[in-house]
Design goal:
The complex is a heterodimer of chains A (546) and B (390). Chain A is of the alpha/beta class and 546 residues long. Chain A has a single domain, classed as Metal-dependent hydrolases (TIM Barrel, Alpha-Beta Barrel). In chain A, 31% of the residues lie in helices and 23% in strands. Chain A contains 17 helices and 28 strands. In chain A, helix 8 runs parallel beside helix 9. Chain A is globular and about 65 Å long. Chain B folds into three domains: 43 residues, no CATH class; 203 residues, 3-Layer(aba) Sandwich (Rossmann fold), CATH 3.40.50; 86 residues, 3-Layer(aba) Sandwich (Dimethylsulfoxide Reductase, domain 2). In chain B, the strands form four sheets. Chain B has a nine-stranded mixed beta sheet with strand order 5-4-16-15-14-6-7-12-13. Chain B has a three-stranded antiparallel beta sheet with strand order 1-2-3. Classes of the chains: A alpha/beta (546), B alpha/beta (390). Strand 20 of chain A pairs parallel with strand 8 of chain B.
Chain lengths: 546, 390
């Protein structure tokens, strides 16, 4: 296939450009969508097929020191889904913590072409880049963990907001990151003493600042740097009964700022204790419906094996105690922590069944699909390869009813799911799996098929079984090149790193080098990552300060 | 990567700062290497082991040869590729004293020829890795130790001799956020079967009977009492990096078999000791490690009975008996790349001087291309899925 082609006869779903199933020709030249090309060197006949932009995952854990620790300590996970080498295709292992090559192939096979790695300790970012280099086909970005960073806590304690801003810009610029991630702000620092924070106004030991202060400071910094994506927040109290109160309080505290609430399913729980565990999805959805500053991804639970991997050390310890499974913990100097616990979600376990239902309630109750992204918080709620199953649940009320008969009966009494009749349309699916996440990320060339967009295109066979349809695309094009045909990978290629270039807000103070070396264990000069070390990359400029 | 740092201006002193030491898992990155006329004249900040590594890197260089006869690098690469392309059940082993991209290439080669790939973890920290796979671990980066730890227990290790700068950089005299007085803010306990030089820096020494560690450990449910972390004192060179890249590419940290075209893991079957003791492998490639010099006689014996390729900067027990010897530029001194510290933190290794020999990565890349072309009738160019920075 040459450098230009056209796709003819396909039913196009391109919600960002208001196209909702119209039959339309798509022209591709040199990896981009163009108005037209006179003599395309290839033609794809998409008659009776559905054409969408390549999928965009706003929140997944596919490459990091933490993910690799999970791979290394879960050999039992890898025996599902082996991938054998073929010419041009590397071997690997699949499932909840797939190897890097496998990750690229498995996302591609599902029609996804852009993914965001959601949690990276700064000192481990160099490692993440190495893994991402080995994650083929996909374009990738990474968020940098900052919610428990001791430099930020120290600057906040001293009330030095400009220093926070310069430091955040320095981190993103030095590490080639995409955005600001917070995980249990304040709580992970507390975990370094075996503790957590109970709420937004708890003080963090020694630094004497509160989660509320950290949240507001980083949200303000994000806006003043004009970063393309809002702060990406794993809120306090994840996974704990009655955490919806903290969730509502957090969203309220950040009114006036853009905010992405990650895996909100894990933050929408009621009940005074595990015995009283129930859904508060309606309350959370109602808040989001009335507050347009918020975007979210769901963190849908899928039944079966999962690997929980978060920077939320105290939560992972709790889950270890609850599940009695093996536990991996790694506290990271100056920056954050990390915990890993394997987990199995069971249909007949009432907590797991209610978690599953809460995710679906949130999908169905939040009215504006542009502000909801599909995620399983891979692999925390389950593996990303089950996205097509989630799509079927959203598009097919009958299928949901069948599932409701199988899962623990408390879902019927403790959630609103049985009463929800909404079925997602194809266009709405195109929004929550591509157009919406791309918009929330500020990726103007992703998630749509308008002129100038990257020619990342997925073509599906229409099937009333939506799981089948979305699990087995007929074609996937990456940068205008066919990488999957008739459901088979036909060749690999390198994807690129998408990284944000923050505005110049001034250099770090001269004494910063000394402070850095006092508390870290590496040389200041050895911390930044040379762009040349990342062979395929694209800089995304930050916008105007807001 | 930070290549091309070497400076050849006549007699002019060049000081390369922030150099990462390739010797052990402490992975100090604050060395200053003084280079005059392309030769290393001095090394500051390093321990005796690190300093020796740099100062004597020219001593004992291996020479290229086939069956004991001098040969060119090109001929050696051709001969190595022929051996590997013909092998039915080969072994690739070693890989600790080299850099990440060479390790990447070794894994790709293993995949191509359906080899067993294993590294020195297999005969060292394999039990720790398997313990982590069984029950997990509560650990931290060394900076957490520096900043916070007020109680240090060196258990069955001897950093005073094996990791000389661990105590001053991270664990005993190191001053951090909550340990501003260094040693005075810490209690140091040494547990071992015998006193060692590490015992001298400890406030208390507890002598346990050999093989009684398990019983003693089991008695201590430390995390119920307060926040306790545990960290293996990983040793040789970039052994942690090899476990890291093998894990992200195959899912498993060591003892990986590629004979079915996908990775399988079974210590006791695909681990180097067993493959050699059972006389299963029919050819071996040893990269940056001395298998013959370190293995029991029975294993070494089998290695000597099969076609054996050694890629190494220096002569060793292995190069002495190898069928093909390919000398290389030493990673971290004459070749750049990346190495991992014992706590999984990656650091860039700089190239501080030139070498007449190619890097491990380059040699492996060329072998890979040759084998690929022999197997597929291709043109010998790297395969499209070939990763890394060429």
């Amino acid at each position: 296939m040459g450098s230009s082609l056209k796709i003819v006869g396909g039913e196009v779903y391109d919600p960002a450009n208001g196209i909702n199933g119209a039959v339309k020709e798509i022209y591709v030249q040199d990896g981009k969508i163009v108005e037209a090309c006179r003599e395309p060197s290839g033609v794809i006949d998409a008659t009776n097929l559905v054409v969408m932009p390549g999928g965009v995952d706003i929140h997944t854990h596919i490459a990091s020191s933490a993910v690799n620790a999970a791979r290394g300590f879960r050999p039992e996970d890898h025996r599902h889904g082996l991938i054998a080498k073929k010419p041009g295709i590397r071997s690997g292992v699949g499932f909840t913590v797939p190897s890097t090559f496998a990750t690229g192939y498995l996302y591609t096979k599902m029609g996804y072409t852009t993914v965001m790695e959601a949690a990276n300790a700064p000192i481990g970012v160099r490692h993440t880049h190495e893994e991402l280099i080995d994650t083929p086909i996909l374009d990738k970005g990474l968020y940098i963990l900052m919610g428990n960073n001791e430099f930020i806590l120290k600057y906040l304690k001293a009330g030095e907001m400009e220093k926070v801003k310069r430091y955040v810009a320095w981190l993103i610029r030095s590490l080639k990151g995409y955005g600001i991630k917070l995980v249990n702000p304040g709580g992970v620092e507390q975990w370094k003493y075996g503790k957590d924070v109970e709420g937004l106004d708890d003080k963090v030991y020694y630094f004497d600042v509160t989660p509320r202060q950290i949240l507001k400071a980083l949200a303000w910094t994000n806006e003043s740097l004009g970063l393309p994506h809002p702060i990406h927040l794993h809120a306090n109290r994840l996974g704990i009964p009655n955490n919806y109160l903290t969730t509502l309080e957090t969203m309220h505290a950040l009114e006036g700022f853009r905010l992405h609430m990650a895996h909100i399913q894990f933050h929408s729980y009621g009940g005074e204790n595990w015995g009283g565990f129930c859904s508060k999805a309606a309350e959370v959805a109602e808040y989001i419906n009335t507050h347009p500053h918020i975007t979210t991804d769901i963190g849908q639970v899928v039944f079966g094996d999962a690997t929980t991997i978060t920077a939320d050390g105290p939560w992972q310890y709790r889950l270890y105690k609850l599940s009695k499974n093996k536990w991996y913990n790694q506290d990271v100097e100056v920056e954050t922590g990390c915990g890993i616990v394997p987990y199995v979600y069971r249909e007949k376990n009432y907590v797991n069944a209610i978690q599953w239902a809460i995710g679906l309630e949130l999908f169905l109750l939040i009215q504006d699909p542009w502000r909801v992204s599909l995620s399983t918080d891979h692999p925390n709620g389950g593996a990303f390869i089950f996205y097509p199953w989630v799509i079927k649940l959203l598009m097919d009320k009958e299928f949901r009813s069948e599932m409701l008969k199988r899962v623990h009966k408390r879902v019927l009494s403790d959630t609103t799911l049985p009463n929800l009749d909404r079925e997602y349309t194809l266009s709405e699916i195109a929004i929550i799996t591509r157009a919406g996440p791309a918009r929330a990320l500020g990726l103007t060339r992703k998630g749509h098929l308008g002129v100038g967009a990257d020619a990342d295109i997925t073509i599906y066979l229409k099937d009333s079984d939506r799981e089948q349809m979305f699990e087995h695309p007929i074609y996937v094009l990456k940068d205008g090149v066919v990488v999957l045909r008739e459901g088979e990978l036909v060749g690999s290629r390198d994807g690129k790193l998408l990284f944000v270039v923050p505005p110049d807000v001034g250099e770090m103070d001269p004494e910063f080098k000394t402070e850095f070396e006092n508390f870290y264990t590496i040389e200041y000069e050895n911390f930044p990552i040379d762009a040349e070390d990342i062979p395929n990359r694209e800089a995304i400029p930050a916008g105007a300060s807001r | 990567m930070a290549e091309g740092v070497a400076v050849k201006e006549a007699k002019e002193l060049t000081v390369v700062k922030g150099v990462t030491c390739p010797f052990c898992g402490v992975t100090c990155d604050d060395l200053e290497v003084h280079v005059v006329d392309g030769k290393i004249k001095d090394v500051k900040n390093a321990c005796v082991l690190g300093k020796d590594t740099f100062m004597h890197h020219l001593e004992g260089w291996a020479t290229p040869r086939i069956k004991g006869k001098p040969a060119t690098i090109d001929e050696c690469i051709e001969a190595a590729a022929e051996i590997l392309a013909k092998a039915k059940y080969p072994l690739i082993y070693g890989l600790d004293s080299t850099e990440l991209n060479a390790q990447r290439k070794a894994i790709e080669l293993a995949e191509l020829i359906g080899a067993n790939i294993d590294h020195t973890s297999s005969v060292c920290h394999a039990p720790s890795l398997q313990a982590v796979q069984t029950v997990g671990i509560s650990s931290c980066t060394v900076g957490e130790v520096k900043n916070r730890a007020d109680l240090i227990i060196f258990w069955g290790c001897n950093p005073a001799e094996a990791h000389p700068r661990h105590p001053s950089r991270y664990s005993v005299t190191a001053k951090g956020l909550f340990t501003p007085k260094g040693k005075k803010d810490r209690m140091v306990i040494n547990v071992d079967v015998r006193p060692t030089p590490t015992t001298r820096m400890a406030d208390a020494f507890i002598q346990v009977k050999p093989n009684s560690d398990y019983e003693v450990f089991s008695a201590l449910e430390l995390n119920r009492f307060t926040k306790f972390q545990c960290a293996p004192m990983r040793g040789h060179g970039n052994v942690v990096g090899m476990a890291q890249v093998l894990t992200w590419q195959t899912g498993y940290p060591f003892a990986v078999n590629m004979s079915r075209g996908y990775p399988r893991f079974n210590p006791g079957e695909y681990s180097v000791a067993d493959l050699l003791a059972h006389r299963e492998v029919d050819a071996a490639l040893i990269v940056a490690g001395d298998a013959i010099g370190n293995f029991p006689a029975k294993m070494a014996e089998h290695l000597q009975s099969i076609p054996l390729i050694a890629i190494d900067p220096k002569e060793s027990g292995t190069t002495k008996v190898a069928t093909v010897v390919i000398p290389t530029a030493q990673a971290g001194i004459a070749a750049g790349g990346m190495a991992y510290r014992m706590d999984h933190i990656p650091l860039v290794m700089k190239k501080v001087v030139d070498s007449p020999y190619p890097s491990d990565r380059e040699v492996l890349e060329r072998i890979l291309a040759k084998v690929s072309s022999m197997k597929n009738g291709g043109n010998g160019a790297p395969s499209p899925a070939s990763k890394g920075r060429g």
